[in-house]
Write a structure and sequence with these properties.
- By secondary structure, the protein is mainly alpha-helical.
- Helices cover 71% and strands 1% of the residues.
- It is built from 36 helices and 2 strands.
- Strands 1-2 form a two-stranded antiparallel sheet.
């Protein structure tokens, strides 16, 4: 904070003893807004304000000076957020000038303490503030009387337009524009009078006179103002899109800027970024091509590097076009653009560009669903050879992702990520650090280690960025943050913490608006959570409409959930047909997780027709796949299915033995539904091993019966958190039978009453307890 104050007031802007005086454009206009900034500087010097307030105001000064002119409302709001006392003083000083006479404005300029006239001034002569004040005073002193009068009338209009809404057809007062010779500080002749008539006949309106609080500027900006505006908006789009202008407002501002300077290459590039926000493929491609056209025509590359600069722009233009088509899923066009970039890079022997092309080549192959392991390994080797740590780390992360889907062990993947993390911290590659943490979170979740996934997600969200913080914004809108937050939402939903889930999703919706590129992540996450909640609560009529929305974002997930709904609605034939098609598709695309889930659902369909022996080969195959790919969560779920099948085949002792293998990881890392189902199945196995019969004809092992009651009580707690009424009905039914066998009449009546209430509320026949897990 102290450095901000010093750089604005005390530090001379010198490099090797040379003072750079031309900080502000000499041709900037004298405007009422600049007078407001002068009033702010005056009151900051004259009034006593606290140190925190002064620091906030010091941080505000530079954007106020370099940015586009603001309306009085915007200006006062910005100052008031930093120091209400100073905002009121500035408003009072402007009121004295605007509601007074011309001499009041003259008096303000004559009494303004400057670093040249006041020895006790806080501003150093060559500081940002000092140069600004010097520029304004010299510009004001060169004005003729008629120009001073026009400036005063403009100040009046600027002030009163804030308090009175202009009526339709009202013409705003002209603002003084000082042309080049007016503001030429080296001129020794006063040539202002010769141009008074011409200026009075043709004086353009400044952009600040046409703006209101909700409308961007309409008039031409100075070069420095335009560069500041573009830099700020580009930074905000990259780091926090919500703080940038809305897409329509930014488009209007850029169109206005390009109207005055069509060859402004940077404006075309910002237009490209803005079009990408709203997924406008035509305008984004159009703006990107215009950017490189203007870059070549302006000669900024060619003049410094000759023909090499011209070729460099061409090959990177083709590479950017390829990445654009990749983003929109136009793989054929992306491949053509990429081949063009490779050809030009090879002709000019540009190894760095070729490495970028190779990185996009293996990315494109992955998007097509092809195996790109060889290409990725070649890319990593070449990037390391040419000392390109960013591309090398990106390639290793891609290999880790492929290895995770191909069944590599966790310790090998984590070792690879650890090696890349060392490289990231060495070169301060904060973006890749975030990707690495998000990738680690996903890998732990895939392996079924929810506690480790939660830890990694929290580590990413609480990590301080290594990137410099500009405009008060820290980067938090990357894909890595979206992935981590989605994992957090799903982990909380699995534990029944739906209030926390709502808060996380609300933050995601604010941080990643629906039109943004990463919005699909939280949209799919939100739909999946809603679907699972409705399915757990038995509200299949609410879950069914969500299938269409899920299919629009992910066809595979949509098909799987459609089969789940059909199975729940007892439409087994349709569900089986969908599951078979889905299994064939996922085996081709090597989506092992979905293949295992499909096998488990198919086995459940066999249960409904009492085909328990038919389900065994499917379950054993699913278990082998899960263990081969180290998917502990799916392996535990498969073991539960195997134990249930063995129970139904009449071997409860073997089922209980198998359950002991799966119960620990389920209780440690599983969802509430998995825990409840595992405990319910354990209780049923204990009842079967104890020799329990509902009619009480056989003598049961009392110890195991009591143990089964305790297990059911624990399962009740889990199902209650999820409001899973169908499962609770099953639990209360079994509890009533067990209490009755032990002669516990009151507990039996209580369980029977709870069962009866749930049965009446659900108004649907309970499926046989023996036919589902």
């Amino acid at each position: 904070m102290a450095s901000v104050h010093e750089s604005l007031y005390f530090n001379p802007m010198m490099t090797n003893g040379v003072v750079h005086a031309n900080v502000f454009g000499i041709k900037d206009w004298v405007t009422p807004y600049k007078i407001s900034v002068l009033a702010l500087l005056y009151d900051m010097t004259a009034s006593k304000i606290t140190l925190p307030e002064r620091r906030r105001l010091n941080k505000l000064i530079l954007p106020l000076q370099q940015g586009p002119d603001l309306t009085l409302g915007q200006f006062l709001k910005a100052v008031e957020e930093c120091c209400p006392q100073t905002a009121y003083a500035v408003k009072l000083r402007l009121h004295e000038m605007a509601d007074g006479e011309l001499k009041d404005m003259e008096y303000f300029f004559s009494t303004l303490p400057t670093p040249f006239s006041a020895f006790d001034s806080e501003a150093y002569k060559t500081s940002v503030v000092g140069l600004f004040m010097r520029h304004m005073l010299l510009a004001y002193n060169k004005l003729s009387f008629s120009q001073v009068y026009k400036l005063y009338k403009s100040l009046q209009h600027y002030y009163h337009s804030h308090y009175a809404k202009p009526t339709d057809g009202q013409v705003s007062l002209p603002v003084l524009v000082a042309d080049d010779s007016d503001m030429d500080l080296t001129s020794t002749e006063d040539t202002v009078g010769d141009r008074i008539d011409r200026e009075e006949l043709d004086t353009p309106l400044h952009e600040s006179e046409l703006r209101n609080d909700n409308t961007p500027s309409r008039g031409p900006l100075s070069q420095k103002q335009a560069e500041y505006f573009l830099a700020k908006q580009a930074y905000l789009l990259k780091n926090d899109e919500n703080k940038a202008l809305k897409p329509a407002a930014l488009q209007e501002e850029l169109n206005n800027m390009l109207k005055f300077n069509p060859d402004f290459a940077e404006a075309h590039y910002l237009n490209y970024l803005n079009s990408m926000r709203v997924q406008d493929i035509f305008l984004s491609a159009h703006s990107l091509l215009h950017y490189f056209d203007r870059l070549i025509l302006s000669g900024s590359e060619g003049k410094s590097n000759g023909d090499e600069g011209y070729g460099r722009s061409l090959r990177y233009a083709a590479l950017n076009l390829a990445s654009l088509h990749c983003r929109f899923g136009h793989y054929q066009q992306a491949d053509l653009a990429l081949q063009e970039a490779i050809r030009i890079a090879q002709e000019s022997n540009d190894h760095v560009c070729l490495q970028h092309c190779l990185s996009w080549l293996y990315t494109l192959e992955q998007m097509k669903g092809s195996d790109s392991t060889v290409l990725t390994e070649d890319s990593v080797k070449m990037a390391a050879h040419f000392c390109l740590p960013y591309l090398a780390s990106l390639g290793i992360q891609s290999l880790v992702q492929q290895g995770a889907t191909q069944g590599k062990t966790a310790h090998k993947l984590m070792d690879a990520l650890k090696d890349t993390d060392i490289l990231h911290w060495k070169h301060s590659l904060s973006e890749l650090i975030e990707i690495s943490l998000a990738q680690t979170t996903s890998i732990w979740r895939m392996f079924g280690k929810s506690t480790m996934a939660l830890q990694q997600a929290q580590l990413l969200l609480n990590m301080s960025s290594l990137e410099p913080v500009n405009f008060g914004v820290q980067q938090n809108n990357t894909e890595a943050f979206a992935v981590a937050l989605c994992h957090l939402a799903e982990l909380h939903a699995e534990q029944g913490l739906y209030c926390a889930v709502s808060e996380i999703l609300q933050h995601l919706k604010e941080q990643f608006p629906p039109h943004s590129h990463h919005a699909k992540l939280w949209m799919l996450c939100d739909l999946k959570i809603q679907f699972e909640r409705h399915m757990n609560e038995g509200k299949y009529h609410l879950a069914e409409p969500l299938v269409t929305a899920i299919s629009a974002l992910n066809k595979t997930e949509g098909l799987y959930r459609k089969a789940q709904v059909l199975k729940a609605l007892n439409r087994s034939t349709e569900a089986y047909s969908i599951l078979q098609r889905l299994q064939v598709h996922c085996e081709k695309t090597k989506r092992t997780e979905v293949v295992i889930r499909v096998m488990l659902s198919t086995a459940e369909l066999h249960w409904e027709s009492s085909g328990f022996s038919t389900a065994l080969p499917l379950l054993l195959q699913a278990l082998a796949l899960a263990r081969q790919h180290h998917l502990q969560s799916l392996a535990s779920e498969t073991i539960l299915h195997l134990a249930f099948t063995q129970l139904m085949l009449g071997i409860p002792e073997r089922a209980l033995s198998v359950l002991h293998e799966a119960i620990e990881p389920v209780l440690a890392h599983g969802s509430l539904m998995d825990k409840g189902r595992a405990l319910l199945l354990t209780a049923r196995c204990q009842m079967a091993v104890a020799g329990f019969r509902p009619n009480g004809q056989a003598q049961a092992d009392l110890h195991l019966v009591v143990l089964a009651i305790d297990t059911l009580n624990e399962a009740t707690a889990y199902f209650s958190k999820l409001n899973c009424k169908e499962r609770l009905r099953d639990v209360h039914y079994l509890q009533a039978q067990l209490h009755r066998s032990l002669g516990q009449t009151s507990q039996c009546n209580k369980s029977a009453m709870l069962f009866r209430l749930l049965d009446q509320e659900l108004q649907s026949p309970a499926p046989p307890v023996s036919m589902r897990l």
